[in-house]
Design a protein that fits this description.
There is one protein chain. The chain has 489 residues and is α/β, with parallel strands linked by helices. Helix content is 37%, strand content 22%. The strands form six sheets. The protein has a seven-stranded mixed beta sheet, with helices on both faces. Strands 9-8-7-10-11-21 form a six-stranded mixed beta sheet, sandwiched between helices. Strand 1 and strand 2 form a beta hairpin. The protein starts with 10 loop residues before the first strand and ends with a strand. The mean pLDDT is 98. The structure holds nicotinamide-adenine-dinucleotide. The site of nicotinamide-adenine-dinucleotide (NAD) has 26 residues, from helix 7 and helix 8. It comes from Mycolicibacter heraklionensis. This is Aldehyde dehydrogenase. InterPro entries: Ald_DH/histidinol_DH, Ald_DH_C, Ald_DH_CS_GLU, Ald_DH_N, Aldehyde_dehydrogenase_Rv0768, Aldehyde_DH_dom. Keywords: Oxidoreductase.
């Protein structure tokens, strides 16, 4: 059967697809502003039931100890998504405004494939480690260290790469033996709701193990952070909301995983191929209209070649026209909403107020009367002190900043409240690697290397968050450690 056949999505609570206690809300195509259909709008009673169901499924069923069942179920979800991949592609383009070309990677197929890594990791994991016999305090003891699921996971996710973020939480959390309540962003409810349909209709995932609660009410996310029945909150979104999640979770001392904002730097060393580096920097900030937390939005270039660097970046970005994300050649689609477009525009106005200039772009494209489009924009003439160089804009906007050598470039890159990612371009590999090693950031690309992969941990330093998603480290976020000592007399 087709997904969302009647144009209305439902919640998944305790194994049942149900409507929301608060009725429904419209989901909008950001490229056209057309209403795609309706999503179930959960209320607090729905969230309460979802948390209760997840708690029961964890405490009263064999899910957390039956690794074979979990591995099978995660693979079933992967296979169901693969079977429906073309439907999911169209839905993702419409619901997220994601350029079609990105659905071959991180917007869809990448995260589907990465479910294999979660299943394989659980299948091959050393759940019990034998530390052997010892005699601490003279008492002969056999010691082992056991890894087991944390319990009920509250997963709260944003709208920018929703499959990637939903599945990078769901896959490892389930494979590790947890039960989950997923509270996705209200801007992209369908991308999450289809998971509910696929889980209910194409997998053996038992009732209550996964609950998907779409809602316009952000307070339902806060419920997850506060509720004592939830053992871990895994959150991706803005640093401001992450702070609130951490504070809400403090009362019950629950584990908190946070993947937050970024203002990452692209460092061009003075021996680098300036044209190649600045073109890559300009291109990458246009992908998905700059709505990626790890996108390098500060281009830091040798002062002596500043004007040249600005011109190259503007040449690249000025030639990328924002447009219809369903077309195969589109790189830069819309931003997610009118609110987000207005927020980006307010930062562009701020850039001028701070004394900056636009080398290209600067506003809404005249040839796109509908849809939430913003022109790729290069800001020049500002230092790293400017607010547009310090705050996350989340649009196709690049600020070019001069540096006075490697030490200064590293200082500028690290002079940020964030520490999510970074890029270094330089001709001498040893020198570039040395600069990369000094960056206070969770992922670093040297000369075009790609850190995005199922087995690579992703996450931030400083106010970009704590913990890691993906890789073995991302799997282990969802595990507790139990040390068992048995007297060996
Ligand atoms: P947000 O942080 O407001 O929302 C993310 C998720 O948290 C959503 O599901 C939302 O409903 C939920 N939420 C909101 N308030 C909550 C609360 N008090 N407690 C618990 N959950 C809560 O992010 P947004 O509105 O989607 O975007 C705002 C800004 O966040 C963007 O402009 C961008 O700067 C940043 N952002 C960052 C990322 C990232 O991956 N780092 C992704 C999307 C957005």
């Amino acid at each position: 059967m087709a997904l969302l056949a009647d144009g209305v999505s439902r919640l998944l609570i305790d194994g049942k697809l149900t409507s929301g206690g608060a009725g429904g809300f419209a989901t909008v195509n950001p490229a056209t502003e057309e209403v795609l259909g309706e999503a179930a709008n959960a209320d607090t009673a729905d969230m309460d039931r979802a948390i209760g169901a997840a708690r029961r499924a964890f405490d009263e069923t064999g899910w957390s100890t039956n690794t074979e069942l979990r591995v099978r179920c995660v693979r079933q979800l992967r296979d169901a998504m693969r079977e429906h991949v073309e439907e999911l592609r169209d839905l993702t383009i419409a619901d997220v405004g994601a350029p079609r070309m990105l659905t071959a990677g991180a917007q869809l197929e990448g995260p589907i494939n990465d479910l294999s890594f979660a299943a394989d990791t659980a299948e091959n994991y050393e759940w019990t480690q034998d530390l052997g016999l010892a005699s601490p305090m003279g008492i002969p003891t056999r010691r082992s260290v056991v890894r087991e699921a944390v319990g009920v996971v509250g997963a709260i996710t944003p709208w920018n790469f929703p499959h990637q973020i939903n599945l990078a939480k769901l896959g490892p959390a389930l494979a590790a033996g947890n039960t989950v309540v997923l509270k996705p962003a209200p801007d992209t409810p369908w991308v999450a709701a289809v998971l509910g349909e696929l889980i209910a209709e194409h997998t053996d995932i038992p009732p209550g193990v996964v609950n998907i609660v779409t809602s316009t009410d952000h307070a339902l996310g806060a419920m997850l952070a506060k509720d004592p029945r939830v053992d871990l909150v895994s959150f991706t979104g803005s640093t401001a909301t992450g702070r609130s999640v951490m504070a809400d979770a403090a009362a019950t001392i629950k584990k908190v995983f946070l993947e937050l904002g970024g203002k990452s730097a692209f460092l061009v060393l003075d021996d680098a191929d300036l044209a190649a580096a600045c073109s890559v920097a300009g291109f990458s900030v246009c992908l998905h209209a700059g709505q990626g937390c790890a996108i390098t939005t500060r281009l830091v270039v040798p002062r002596a070649r500043y004007d040249e660097a600005v011109a190259i970046a503007a040449g690249t970005m000025g030639s990328i026209k924002p447009g219809d994300p369903s077309k195969p050649g589109t790189i830069c689609g819309p931003v997610i909403s009118a609110r987000q477009r207005d927020r980006v525009q307010s930062y562009l106005d701020l850039a001028i107020a701070e004394g900056g200039e636009f080398a290209c772009g600067g506003g809404r494209p005249a040839d796109q009367p509908a849809g939430f489009f913003i022109e790729p924009t290069v800001i020049s003439g500002l230092t790293n002190e400017a607010r547009v160089a310090r705050e996350e804009i989340f649009g196709p906007v690049l600020t070019v900043i001069p540096h006075d050598g490697d030490d200064d470039a590293v200082r500028i890159a690290n002079d940020s409240p964030y520490g999510l990612s970074g890029t270094v371009y330089g001709a001498d590999p040893e020198r570039a690697a040395g600069v990369a090693a000094r960056l206070r950031a969770g992922t670093v690309n040297v000369n075009g290397g790609v850190w995005y992969a199922a087995d690579m941990p992703f996450g931030g330093y400083k106010q970009s968050g704590n913990g890691r998603e993906m890789g073995i480290a991302g799997f282990e976020e969802y595990l507790e450690i139990k040390a068992i000592a048995t007297a060996a007399n």
